[in-house]
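Allow me, if you will, to draw on your knowledge of protein folds for a short while. I have a record of one protein: its chain in single-letter code and its fold written as discrete structure tokens. Could you please explain, in whatever detail you think fit, how the structure tokens follow from the sequence? The record follows directly beneath this note:
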Amino acid sequence: MIIAEGVCKNYRNRRVLSQTHISCERGQIVGLLGKNGAGKTTLFKILLGLVKPNSGKVTINSSHVKPLGGIIEKPSLYEYLNAKDNLKVFSEIQGLHLSDAELNEQLDKVGLSNDRTDAVKNYSMGMKQRLGIAVALLNHPEYLILDEPFSGLDPMGIKSLRELILGLIKKENIGIIISSHIIEELNKICDNLYIINEGKIINYGQTQEIITKHTQAFTLYASGIEHAKTLGEYRSSVRKNSAVIFIPPQQLADLLQKLAQEEIVVTACIPEINFDTLLQREL
């Protein structure tokens, strides 16, 4: 288990983190949600031992040679080398001497081709993120830190990276702490969620409980939904093939049933979060 307790960090006269806490177990994905500048990256640097806190402590219970791996902000790669050579350099820095087969296996683990020989500078951001994760997984850490991994990715890249993260949990049984300001992505993969605002953890708990508590509406996508008579029963904002319905989560199942009776097939249902209440201190 990795635990941060009472972590405080000042830069000159500015307090960046105040009595911050977070924890993660193996086999668990923990999300850290906050706006840009909320303190997410600073907390991750402290967890990885890159920055010393002014007070508080970090405990990592692990028997592995490398308890913790991670990516802060963007993967730091040798852009002029290919993927396999990048892995080889980083493995030797960590005291490993991997065979060609082992390097291929590491690339396969993150879904990268092992026969691509061009420089990493030609890779998409999503492919660079995958390679960065492969580097972070060298020496088999028990825990992985991912700082804003979805930033700069297109929808297909986000979906691909999400599937990779879920696959790692299933196959490697590691613990992952992942930060983002995109609540929709954390909602899809995280078991537990911490909300950070102005350097303080203001809320935490099971992800679905937090999302449900702060959901103020749902956006529904369905062909012809703008003609549904059912929508007249609710406060809504309707456009062609989509509608935002302002209802509590407890009424969603009844709404979907009524739409189905009108032969309106809902293809997507996205919760709309009330960020004003989400960022209010509850602890």
Summary: The chain has a mean pLDDT of 90.
